[in-house]
Amino acid sequence: MITPVPCVPMTTAATTVAPASGLGPRPLEGSPVPKLRSVLVAITLALLAPLFVVTGAAAQDESTPIERIDLPTASSGEQVAGELRQNKVDPFTLVAVTWQGSLRALDAEVRVDGEDGWSDWQQLTLSEEAEGEARGGSEPLWVGEATGFEVRLRGTGAASDVQVSLIRSETRSTDTQQRPQVQRRSAANGAAQPVITTRAQWGADERLITPDCVAPNIASTLKAGVVHHTAGSNNYTAAQAAAQLRGIYAYHVRDRGWCDIGYNFLVDKYGKIYEGRHGGIDKPIIGAHAGGWNTATVGVSIMMNSDTMKPTDVSLEAMVSVFAWKFSLHGIDPLGKTTLNGRTINTIEPHKALTATDCPGVNLRPKLDWIRQRTAQLMGTGEEPDRSPISDRWAAEGGANGPWGAMVGGIKETADGGSWADFANVTAYASPTGEIAVVQGRIRDRWKELGGATSGLGLPRSNETAGPHGSRVTTFEHGRMIWTLPTDAQPIYGWFNSNYDRLSNAVGVPTSGEYLRQGRIVQDFTRGRFYLTNGSLHAVYGTIWDRYNAMGADESALGLPVSSEEAGPAGSRQTRFANGWMVWRIDTGAQPVLGWFGANYEGLSTALGVPTSGEYLRQGRIVQDFENGRIYLNGNLAAVYGRIWDQYAAMGADQSWLGLPLGSEEAGPNGSRQVRFEHGTLRWTLSGGVTILVS
């Protein structure tokens, strides 16, 4: 059972909240705010009672801030227990638990039915209580897209009206396209203002703010900074960060009854900074992030659970850049002490040092000394980084105030004698001779998702350039990343990368990364697919790919490719497969040759020529047409071609009096070639041409 309370925004006397009956103004008709639904859990209070099943119901009107359904509760002691099983509901992206009353400790777990089925149980981080708070609750957990949930809880204290809150906050196209546009302003003798995504840019609906909170509470000065984590999910994309933030904001105001989001600033794991509580980013706004410690402090929270994962370098650097700028405005020493609430504290403290909480988590608290030192460095009161081609280029770009943003983690040497460094908005590599390669934008985001410098791509080796088919390309140590708007940024590694240049015009741009299919490593492109088999590349593309894909690709009767496209008979192009061939020529299109026909085609291709059809039924036989003949299958293979086929076709082929062939062309007497039919034989000699023999 959790006794220390985790990190969540907290209200104080300095921040007025809406009454529980109101929960803020009703949004206007058609308001595009995150949708919330509350599922009420009937909780029985029973001394040392185990978990048991209770009932719930989903709200129907999603246009209102929240709907509550009162269910009866009972109390006979201090132990609270409850469980709500696997409800199927409309899609949601965040889940949380709220309650009325006081809980001294509570364990709450949730699992959801998402795109990959039911997840494992995940702990919900519970909020500390605060005087005047409308409802107690957990931190909302980002779950992506889910349509079912199961919650179980157990705690001590007095609670009623326990609810499961389901929040749907959808990703918008502007979440990836919008670039922060806040003007950077340098503080006197200190760090510059970092790039900050405003509330308007991340989509905060200002109509959610309660009337008594419209005029922000502003302290007379700033004295300290507080480090937080949101205790939410670590599993979100750069595009989902703003959607997650909109969901947190809606939950704080609508479900918890607060007047605004609690933190002053939030930072996603990709290093993007977001304006939190409204009122002015350059002012000492009194937030609601640390109970009893909100006045004269700035609360910065990384959107993650730092108990289960280490914070990213870029998120730490972004947090530091906020502290450095705010401290520069107010003349605060990040390595010093200050007095608040009658206590002497560090000017940068973790939430845990101020209140009974586990915030931030075990992977973020050890970074506090680094955060203080790095803040001092950015403010110009600490050591400056060593000079290098990267630092010189960074300075030329405007330093932390330029488009590269703040440096993250310093400059690192590479095995080839070069160096590299992360910045808030780019990653730069310097070759041993000083040439700089920069990766940025969506290509960098995708590279970071794959592991950045430790990914299979390695470090960048070129700036972004124009690529095939209107793409943008950045090359890396071990591959390249290719971006187009419809396909997003996709990596190409190893053998596939080595062969891409010569095949790019034919296969198009990648639509996926590498993955396993039918026991092979494969990669998809707009006009084909690469297969890797025992170290050999087999590429299927163009019209041959179109026909192969329409048949079911490697799940079709042809099976897996055993060659790339190659020259075929009579000016054709062909690809060999495990169970046949696909042969293309401009006048015949792409035609498959399967099974028995495929097994014998290589030896007959010169005589038969290019296939002009696929298999079909004729006269009770499976047949296939070629430009110089036809193959019949009826227990055995019968191939008719060349001059004998010309005569046979002129007579009406299998509809002639000769009937169907009984076998393929064979040796006849005196050096002749012949084919036997049901009612006769066609025999060819070089001197006499084709002779018709009646049986």
UniProtKB/TrEMBL annotation:
Q: Which residues form a coiled coil?
A: none
Q: Which GO terms describe its biological process?
A: peptidoglycan catabolic process
- Domain Peptidoglycan recognition protein family, first and last residues per copy: 194-345
| Region of interest (Disordered), ranges | 168-194
Task: Tell me the CDD domains matching this sequence.
Answer: PGRP
InterPro entries given in the database record: Amidase/PGRP_sf, Amidase_domain, LGFP, PGRP, PGRP_domain_met/bac
Where on the tree of life does the source sit, at the highest rank? Answer: Bacteria
Identify the residues that the record assigns to the N-acetylmuramoyl-L-alanine amidase domain, covering every copy.
210-361
Q: Which Pfam families match?
A: Amidase_2, LGFP
Give the compositionally biased regions (Polar residues).
168-186
Citing just one GO molecular function, the answer is: N-acetylmuramoyl-L-alanine amidase activity
| SUPFAM superfamilies listed in its UniProt record | N-acetylmuramoyl-L-alanine amidase-like (SSF55846)
Record's PANTHER family? PEPTIDOGLYCAN RECOGNITION PROTEIN (PTHR11022), PEPTIDOGLYCAN-RECOGNITION PROTEIN LC-RELATED (PTHR11022:SF41)
Please report which protein family the annotation says this sequence is part of: Belongs to the N-acetylmuramoyl-L-alanine amidase 2 family.
What is the designated name of this protein?
Peptidoglycan recognition protein family domain-containing protein
